[in-house]
Amino acid sequence: MSATTNTLRFILNDEEVALTELRATETLLDYLRLSKRLRGSKEGCAEGDCGACTVLVGRLKGGELRYESINACIAFMGSLHGTHVVTIEHLSAANGPLHPVQQAMVDFHGSQCGFCTPGIVMSLYGLWMEEPRPGVAAIEKALQGNLCRCTGYSPIVRAGQAISSYGAAEADPLVAERAAMKAKLAALHDGRTVEIGEGTDRLIVPATVDDLAEIYAANPGATLVSGATDVGLWVTKFMRDIGPVITIGHLQELHSIAETEGALVLGAGVTYTEASGAIARHFPQLSELWDRIGGAQVRNAGTIGANIANGSPIGDTPPPLIVLGASITLRRGNERREVKLKDFFIAYGKQDRQPGEFVESVTIPYLPAGELLACYKITKRKDEDISALCGAFRVFVNDDGKVGMARIAFGGMAATPKRAKAVEEALLGQPWSAATIEAALPAFGVDFQPISDMRASKEYRLLAAQNLLRRFHLETVGEGQRLVRAVA
Amino acid sequence: MNKLDVVSTSGRLHESTPHDSAAKQVAGRAEYVDDLTEPEGTLHAYLGLSTKAHAEIASLDLSAVRAAAGVVGVLTAEDIPGVNDVSSVHKHDEPLLAERVVKYWGQPLFAVIGVTREAARRASRLAKIDYRELQHATDVAAALNAGGALVTEPLKLERGDVAAGLAASEHRAKGTVTIGGQEHFYLESQVALAIPGEDDEVTIQASTQHPTEIQVMTAQVLGVPHNAITVNMRRMGGGFGGKETQGNLFAAVVALAAKKYGRAVKIRPDRDDDFSITGKRHDFVVSYDVGYNGDGKIQAVAATFAARSGFSADLSGPVTDRALFHADNAYWYPAVRVESLPLFTNTPSNTAFRGFGGPQGVIAAERWIEHIAYALGKDPLDIRKANFYGTDSNNVTPYHQVVEDNIIHRVVDELERGSEYQRRRAEIVAFNKTSRILRKGIALTPVKFGISFTATWHNQAGALVHVYRDGSIHLSHGGTEMGQGLHIKVAQVVAEAFGVPLDRVKIYASNTGKVPNTSATAASSGTDLNGMAALNACEQIKARMEANAAKACGVDAKDVHWEFGGIRAGQQFVPFADLANSCWMNRVQLSATGFYSTPKIHWDRASGRGHPFYYFAYGAAASEVTIDTLTGEYQIDRIDALEDVGRSLNPAIDVGQVEGGIIQGAGWLTTEELVWDDKGQLRTHAPSTYKIPLASDVPPIFNVRLAEWSINKEPAIGRSKAVGEPPLCLAVSVVEALSMAVASVADYRIAPHLDMPVTPERVLMGVERMREGGL
Questions:
Q1: Please, what are the domains in chain B?
Q2: pTM of the prediction?
Q3: pLDDT-derived band at B773, boundaries 50, 70, 90
């Protein structure tokens, strides 16, 4: 066990913060607004969907300091240990000139009521530091997690393209002073486990994964919090008492991305953003889905490991991971076991995870050459929406033109992410043809009895699921036609 | 003649100027109510809500609530010293805190007062409530089944012999269309802070479009005269109609608590609770029977507009009225009868929302136009043009007002050419012939929108202008700023009037102590009314300053002229600040209240006749979409819009209103779906489930232009026109473009029955029906 400390440390704008008293589930936004009286960051939804509370968080990643946008409303304070938190107040002094991002927003009339504006400025700021001359597509992607109800976004997108004409990103303090900030943050990581509070209001920030394993095994009633993009809502919306809280998002060992010979192995703490490069290299068929998971703030915080561990029937990653034959490594203390993902989801809200056991890594075997793969997410709104249904398809067609292997899985069609075994059965051994597809469609009714809810009716879910199989087939025979957004 | 008809550029009227708060907003330094520094010891209120859609309260046990940590007290209806009602239309059907019966899921029953918001919020869930459930009806069909009780008196507009017109028509278009509601989703939720004063006084900081109504309702609840309550309102984080009446409840609760506990009290509901408690845009089911001839000309219209009004009247009367007022859109009906049914439902009380029923009227008109066009095998645009109001004849509305300023022909012609509608439509028809999975559609729809409150007495405004001795100017008026740019426009009017740079004018919060008895900032009227009131105040001060200048310089009054930066009196130029100081030295009053009431308008609701609108604003939009016939997913590829704002006071602000209005309207009609479950609970109560547009929903090609040639025929402020609501109606073109894409599946033989919002699901189901040859 590492030594412990009772102090949570991070840097807030220019100030070093050391906290020894803290509620385990205190959110960053409440801390900023209520304790620090920094009220530029706004609460619009308290569930990480509107982006009015967007701040940047700088973290050391593999020796580099990266600033990423997150939603302060669902970020627990414990997750900020050893980071640099940058809020809207940091961009310009009260009587000084505006920051280039801010001046562009003024000149292009990017604010009306102004309530979403600080969050939008922060999202654009984060983008501009990485990409000083972004195109429309990059701006739209950076703003997937920011709602504006007034402007219709056009002036904001115009402002986003013009920022560099107001100043150089290289000259921005967060860029220019990065080396100094790296040193400061490195000093905050002193190898000690942070423990604050007692009983169910205890916050634990373990120093290493081994510490995590030991602490969690001893406190199986604790809640593990990674990006808090879902658990945050348990607190902000349902006011559940989830303590003791163990934060794990900062554990570097859980952020490993290993592109091994046979599989991509992701540490459970790898965020969607961190994984996106490796996913694009090995599973380009999943890139569109990847970019439609939440908004940027959610992808910067949320992890694949937690998406699985959470067991939601509408999680976006399980369907493709199931068809790819992914497995997870579960760890309890020093014991580890491997579980196929398809076997992990037992029933609604029930997974094959024992008390004190946590997901340590996810192993995704590469797609063998010649196999066909696709994944489709269907939502009411294209971006930052939860799936009405999400279908993943994997097929191998033998040399004789017949289906040698078929794996199909859906989210949103049942109480868990689920394989379409009857459909697979109907395809196996048949010619990979339109006639086979049509003949297999009734099998969807065997596999799935979806429900009607606010996202879609059961009739639509079933019909759209069937049509996705049609789409998959059409695309594999070169007749695919998809909506394409024509922006630069 | 309005003096501002003669324009100089000194005060920057008619020029693009950034929003007055822009620099503060981008820096996070613009203060909203929840950002204000709280008085020491401020308490926090949280509402306890009904978890049944309709029930008697058998028992309400609040002991656990009171006993919870951090709770100071709990308020119920019994704690109200005045009247337990916040009905904006004085129907006494909207209790502040429900007693005995709850009429919708989410209705406030009690208020917890705690030392922190968190403590009050947690405690609010600890009540033990025994309900005796009653039958509930949450939508139009269920309300009609339950007997069709109304929340307020319906309206009928009638002109000509409808029965004869229908009978004589060559064809009939009959159908129904369902138009969904819309949550305002102002980014800043409802919020209010009340600070108790001495005697019966309370000062309230509220996010409201209607400070006077907050004052009136709070006084009623507390049982004190209006002069005891002062409401201050600097800015809202969005309103869109949702803060016209819906803030009453929140302000009254904290005022009540502030007086009871002698401490400041703040309330800010969580987003989910805001969704559940407050009213939204009215859903409608419109049933129509339209007679038309082979040339596409409409002969007679009979239609009923049934609306989900919610549990109380609120503004459902005027909203459903305005739906009828816009059931003609830009079209002349030789004979017409339209009727409203403002139905009682067990849902939050639906309320004002940008357009105020007007957009629903416009949609109904456009749906029957489409119905006719597909039946006759014509481009719907041809049918639209065939039915436009005339300029000298065929120009009487269903409410017997003559359309005197019709420019729809020019607007539509210009947009049709500018958007290359005809070429693109031909290309789309050709594309659809060969495209198997993707289909496209294009539609150009017009809008004519009536400007004025139909309740004539609301068309008044006041302003207060001070000139200080250093020449700086203080401006207060009765309007409220919710992002729409009202304050900057009125400041431009004042700067222009005095011939001073804009930065000499400081805009102050709307305050019931400075400008009393105001109207809601609503009905797109904010600039028309308050700009004129401010100008009136300026003119009074200017006249005094002119007289002073003449006297001080010893010249004749006719030799005194305003110039930029001051006044020229004979040969002498007196800078504005010197002039102000001179007035003070000579004991000339440098402060004035201004007032304005809109001329020309009148309306007799009982007879359905009058001249309710001062003028009309016009516009048109052409939308192009692509749909995926496998999943129903779609995208808006392009929108071209042309909006008539008369002579724009601030083109950048106006373009922002048009762009934002179209996207907000497009969201309403496509992805924003309100879903109540069978228990009567709203299931789409947060952005995770209720989907307003994102940046990536905006069409990649989005051309918005103002009709720069247009000048308001009426002497409205600077000859401008209202801009808040009309552009929202332009989004109807998105629906009709989707309709064309769906219709292509059956070779355009049938007008698709598309209910709104047109979600991907509705598109796919529409495609399926086309494939099956049905509607």
A1: 3-30+460-597 (3.30.365.10), 38-135+184-277 (3.30.365.10), 409-447+617-775 (3.30.365.10)
A2: 0.97
A3: confident
